[in-house]
Amino acid sequence: MPASQKVIKNQGVLGIALALISSSLYGITPIFVYHAFKYGADPFGLMTSRYIIACIALLTVRTVRFGRTNWPSRKTSIQLFLLGAIGLYANSVCMFNALKYLPSGLSMVIFYFYPIVVVLFGWALYKHKPPAIIWPCLVTTIIGVILSASDVSGGQMKGVIYIVIGAFAYAFYSVLAGAVMPRAELTTGLLLVFAGAGFSFSVVWLLDPPGLPTTMPYVANVWLPALEIGIVGTIGAMGIFFAGMNRIGASKSAVVQTWEVLVAGLTGMFFLNQQFTLRQVLGGALILGGVLLLTRAEIKRGENLPQSAHA
């Protein structure tokens, strides 16, 4: 095997390994979320502390590496900040509120129809026409969401609504981030996005509007999970995800990221005593099957493109 092909193969293996690590870090995060909730934290309090911790850590690393230099253009910086302040903020609110009503594994299963929404948004915004297989995949995942949500109680339905809205918010965020993020160095880009999200949560905390409490009791059982979520579940998971995606591409990354659903489901069962019905398992299989089928078609289509098209 030529040396160049061996390097490409090794980079591919490394990319898959990084994507698996990233999805595992995301998958175990609900354990710490539920622990903080148990001791009095709420979604807004936890999210505010999460992004403040992440920003402090990233700003320290960035200052050591680059000092005051190497910032992206003003336009790119504002775009990244707004991605966090609007897109990541909306997704985080929905995801962490959903965990108040739904088991973490079920939340992840329903959430994972978002890659298909990403394809549709990409078509609408950037004229990236999807393959014809998008339509049966879309129908399959919608049926999967309906099946997964059909056995939930009236109170849990709030969680389903939160998770579906969160999936749309994350899909929109992903499409725009894919266009803006490459213009900035990774640490700087993450810092600006997290700063935007932290700004939005901090404003809610300072204004303290009715119905949106921001509660973070000053006890170790709350702040230690917040520290893990900010460092490991935010900086680590997202940074490793982008490092892997740079090696294997977005489509293959989406396939590997479905590992998160398995990790979240298993940790929910073994550490949080969460149970799932047969209908919810079948719905989850339909959602993941639709996503994997679409992603396989996207990868195959990419491999058939001329070499110059990959540049």
Supply the key terms.
311 residues; mainly alpha
Question: Your description of this structure?
Answer:
There is one protein chain. The protein has 311 residues and is an all-alpha fold. Helix content is 80%, strand content 0%. It has eleven helices and no strands. Helix 1 (3-38) packs antiparallel against helix 9, helix 1 runs parallel beside helix 10 and helix 2 packs antiparallel against helix 8 (186-207). The longest helix has 38 residues, at 220-257. The protein is globular and about 50 Å long. Residues 304-311 have low confidence and may be disordered.
- How many separate helices? 11
Beta-strand proportion: under 5%
Which class of secondary structure composition applies to the elements? Answer: mainly alpha
- Helical fraction: over 70%
Cα-atom radius of gyration: 19 Å
